[in-house]
Write a structure and sequence with these properties.
It is built from ten helices and 15 strands. With about 350 residues, the protein is of the alpha/beta class. The protein folds into two domains: about 60 residues, Alpha-Beta Plaits, CATH 3.30.70.1140; about 250 residues, Aldolase class I (TIM Barrel, Alpha-Beta Barrel), CATH 3.20.20.70. The strands form three sheets. Strands 7, 8, 9, 10, 11, 12, 13, 14 and 15 form a nine-stranded parallel beta sheet that branches. Strand 10, helix 5 and strand 11 form a beta-alpha-beta unit. The radius of gyration is 21 Å and the shape is elongated. It binds phosphoenolpyruvate and manganese (II) ion. Manganese (II) ion binds next to loops.
């Protein structure tokens, strides 16, 4: 429920209303703009008497919000949220490219790829240390050693690092990680989301394989309602009946999210398609649909990659994708920082 307060009201009366709402056991999100003050009621508002609030002199309007997400809702927060990661901004007219291998394999590999993607225009480095693999017999990642190698690559290149957390148990190992990724398989790991909500580190929240947009936003809500407002959403394809591609990239999710939420939205065309030659067209389509950035898998030796070689671009292919993105960005009013 959203309560809009009339312009220039007595602060004391606004506080009285806020205290009354809190007395009902509800949380309050206060947004004070130049022209209006908005109170968002957080919690189960089904028992709140909407008519009673409407009759108050200070109240302009009261709207029941259909959507169960409040913190992520654009209705409460009309302006785009901008998330700063080491000076690189996500959201608004900014466009960021995150690139790197699916998984960290060795010091040489991660540093070589980091240098190559930086040179081509990526601003953040990705690389999995803890890997959620479908088979327990596949390479599971280097774990904490992988995190240490990512840190080395960060020191070498100055690029902030993005890497996936699989379990709350590892949260202390992620102290130096700049963006913590929650993978598709953990999008509804609510205990993990609650723990990440207690941090201030930006969270890259990937869409679950079979999650609706609303379920995805509710997962963002878990993080935000615990106090961490820094959530970046990542569309990475959903499972459909189509088997030609690894997943089906839901491009329409981008403009839909832009309507529903103020959070930045980026796209992962690598996991969406599973096929390296499809990464470029879908990157460009994502730019056209209004994405705030991309996360792309790049490997210096895809044939020998320990994970996801088929969808990984070689550095020169990645460079070509960035060049094409640069041609498109002015058309959508966005700027890539370098
Ligand atoms: C990844 O980014 O390495 C990954 C496993 O992605 P997803 O969770 O989208 O499958
Ligand atoms: Mn991968």
């Amino acid at each position: 429920m959203i309560v809009v307060i009339k312009k220039d009201q007595d602060r004391k009366q606004v506080d009285n209303l806020i205290n009354w709402i809190k007395g009902l056991g509800l949380g309050v999100h206060l947004s004070e703009g130049e022209n209006s003050t908005i109170i968002g009621l957080i919690g189960d508002t089904s028992k709140v008497d909407i008519g009673l609030i409407r009759t108050l002199d200070i109240v302009e309007s009261v709207t029941r919000v259909q959507e169960p997400y409040k913190n992520a809702n654009r209705k409460f927060h009309p302006q785009d949220t901008i998330i700063d990661v080491g000076g690189h901004k996500f959201g608004g007219n900014h466009f960021q490219i995150i690139a790197g291998p699916c998984s960290v394999e060795s010091e040489r590999q991660i540093i070589e790829v980091a240098q190559a993607v930086k040179k081509a225009g990526a601003t953040l480095l990705r690389g999995g240390a803890f890997k959620p693999r479908t088979s327990p017999y596949s390479f599971q990642g280097l774990g904490v050693d992988g995190l240490a190698l990512l840190k080395k690559a960060k020191n070498e290149t100055g690029m902030p690092i993005v890497t996936e957390i699989m379990s709350e148990e590892h949260i202390d190992d992620f102290d130096d990680v700049d963006v913590i990724q929650v993978g598709a398989r953990n999008m509804q790991n609510f205990d993990l989301l609650n723990r990440l909500g207690k941090l201030k580190t930006p969270i890259l929240l990937k869409r679950g394989l079979a999650a609706t947009i609303e379920e995805w936003l509710m997962s963002a809500e878990y993080i935000m309602s615990e106090g961490n407002p820094n959530v970046i959403l990542c569309e990475r394809g959903i499972r459909t009946y189509e088997t030609y591609t690894r997943n089906t990239l839901d491009l329409s999710a981008i403009p839909v999210l832009k309507e529903r939420t103020h959070l930045p939205v980026i796209v992962d065309p690598s996991h969406a398609t599973g096929i390296s030659r499809l990464v470029k067209p879908l990157s460009l389509a994502s730019v056209g649909a209004g994405s705030d950035g991309l996360i792309i898998e790049v490997h210096n030796d895809p044939i020998h990659a320990l994970c996801d070689g088929a969808q990984s671009l070689r550095p020169e292919q990645f460079e070509d994708v960035v060049k094409s993105i640069d041609l498109m960005l002015p058309a959508v009013g966005k700027e890539r920082d370098s």
